[in-house]
Amino acid sequence: MANKMLSYRCKNLIVTALLLLVTACGSITEKGDSAPTKVPDVANIPDAVPRDEPRSKYGNPSSYEVFGKRYYTLSSSRGYNEKGIASWYGTKFHGRRTSSGEPYDMYAMTAAHKTLPLPSYVEVTNLNNGRKVIVKVNDRGPFHENRVIDLSYSAATKLGIVAKGTGLVQVRAISAGQAPATATKITSAPAQELTSGSVGMYLQVGAFSTENRAEQLKTKVQQQIGDAVRIVPFVKPGGNIYRVRIGPLASVEYGDSLATRLVELGFSDAHIVIE
Description:
This protein is α+β, with helices and mostly antiparallel strands. The chain is built from three helices and twelve strands; from the N terminus they run E-E-E-E-E-E-E-H-E-E-H-E-E-H-E. A six-stranded mixed beta barrel has the order 3-7-4-6-5-8. Strands 10-11-9-12 form a four-stranded antiparallel β-sheet, with helices on one face. A two-stranded antiparallel sheet has the order 1-2. The protein is globular and about 50 Å long.
């Protein structure tokens, strides 16, 4: 939450640009956050409708730093398309000011993102059950490693990720007048996992233009962990890329713990990828 006062959500994080303050958006794993006691019928909550809006006066510095890491705000959301892990935030931040200056409403279809301009609109697809929603990005975060977007409670409920706390998603920018993909009708039934074509979650430790360097890293990593380490080539016209990966991973929680362990061991490029 970029503003001129102490952040409600991450105190003492000074943004170097414009002397603003930034806060990490919360998720269900953050202490004290939770779902509302009275659960709304999210089927009656419409998706956000993309429209042309001026940039917010707040939350759009050219760059800012949180927890020692610098983030660079994108000049435009056009063409943005990324897969990753989504989290969500709820009652702890309900009514508090977001980075754009708007109050956070956990029942609205909104989200937080580290680098998209505020505001932006994105279509979020749950890659494990096919559900889709459109949300307005009006906040900054999540600053938990290996998270790509933080969803409002209603958006996360529509996607079917509230119970788990996280979900594998694809985030695609939507502009005013652009036709989104057909949304999935939301019912009161639990979200069903896809039985085929589901994506996998991997921990990537490095990527190299030569197989020899990839083999060297693979050997070093394999000496530290019991999980199988593989080299996965990526063929492209300009030359192959050899990616050193672990997985598929059984859960987000395991991926988080393994990534943290490897970073502590000196493998600083370790991060989760979704394919």
